[in-house]
Amino acid sequence: MEAKKIMVCDDDQGVLDVIEMMLDSSGYTAFTEINSTNLISEIKKNQPDLILLDLWMPVLSGDQVVRAIRADQNISHLPVIILSASRDGDDIAMDAGADAFLSKPFDMDELIDTIEDLLKNKQGSISL
């Protein structure tokens, strides 16, 4: 079975490195992007199964990116998990159309569980 691809976007290289390592060790293929303005084109190029996105980034914030994803027919179906240290990030993330929200610092097991739940729900019932 091919590994699920996850796109991670955060403006902190340390966060990207830790999440990428954790996803790789959990059997996922991780792609990272530090610049949110490149994210949509990277999503179209790499075709991930799920997106992990920091809420507070320079230039294009996470909620703006989620709105752009939801407005694009080709990628609007992708599950998006927003990560943020902000207490009101949950409301902002859900208003923008995110599928899940995790506050930083997050528990690695919780992150993997959330990813697995969203990927399972996205596939639904697949007929062979």
Automatic annotation (TrEMBL):
- Please name the InterPro entries in this protein's record: Bact_response_regulator, CheY-like_superfamily, Sig_transdc_resp-reg_receiver
Residue ranges the record marks as coiled coil: none
What are the record keywords, sorted?
A: Phosphoprotein
SMART domains for this protein: REC
Q: Does the keyword Cell membrane apply?
A: no
The cross-references to PROSITE patterns, in alphabetical order and at most eight, read: RESPONSE_REGULATORY (PS50110)
PTM-bearing positions, type 4-aspartylphosphate: D54
Q: Which Pfam families match?
A: Response_reg (PF00072)
Indicate whether Cell division appears among the record's keywords: no
Identify the residues that the record assigns to the Response regulatory domain, covering every copy.
5-119
This one is known as CheY-like chemotaxis protein
Task: Give the organism, scientific name.
Answer: Chryseobacterium camelliae
What does the record give as the organism's lineage?
Bacteria, Pseudomonadati, Bacteroidota, Flavobacteriia, Flavobacteriales
